Amino acid sequence: AVFDTQQNVRRAVNEALNAAVPNAFRKPIGNQIGTKVYTVRDDPQTILTDLRAKYGTCTPSEKAANGRRFDEQWDPNEPIEALFDRLEDCYIFAMQNKPPFTLEQMIDKAITAIQLTGLYERALLEWQDFDEANKTWAQLKLHFEEAYEVRLASGLGTAASHGYVNNAAAETDDDSISTIQESLASIHLANNANYQALQDNLQAARTETATLRSELQAAHATMANLAQARQTVPAPALNAAAPSS
What we know:
Layout: H1 2-20, H2 44-55, H3 60-71, H4 80-96, H5 103-117, H6 121-128, H7 137-154, H8 174-232
C-alpha cells in the first residue's frame, strides 16, 4: 500500500512537470528525437536537479535587472506590501544566483524607500528607537504595515497631496475628499447613536437590577419574619398520663 501511494505521488508530480516544463527543456537523452515525457520511472528530484544545472543559471543582464529592481523607489500610492514583496523577490533571486544580498541590505533598501516618500517620519523615528536585536525584517514589515494602515484609516490621502516627486502633477479629487468627509461624518453619527443606545441599555439594566435587589431584600425580610414567628409559637402541652388501676 505504501509503495502504491509513493508511485501515485510520483506519477502526479511528473504529470505536473510535463505540463509545466516547456518542450524545449525536455530533451531526450542521447540521440533520440522528440520530447522527453516524464513517467513514474523518473525521479522528480533528479529531474529538478538536472533542469537547474542545465537551465537554472541566469544571464548577466538578468542579474543587472534584478539589481535595478532592488534599488527602485517605492510609489506610496501602491500598498506597502508591494515594496516588501519586490525586495523579497530580489533577495531570493540573488540567493539562487550569487552573490546573494544580505538581510541588512534588504532592510536598508526598505528604510531608504520609505524615507524618500517623506510620509512616515514618526514611524521612522520609532524604528530608530528599536533595539538592534529587534530590527529584523519581520519586525520592519510589521511596524511599517501598521503605520501604513493607520495612515489610510486617518484619511490623510496618498503621497500626491504631500509632494512626492513622481506625483507632482497629480490633482486632488475634491469629490473624493468630500465623499470621504461625508463618510467619516456618517460614521461619527452612527457611533453617537450606538453610544446613546448603549447608554439607554445600561440604564435599563441598572433599573432592572435595582428592582430585583429590592425584591430580593423583601423576600429575605419575609423569610426572616417567618422564621422568627415559628420560634415564638409555644410548644403543645403533653397530655397527663392516665392513673394506673
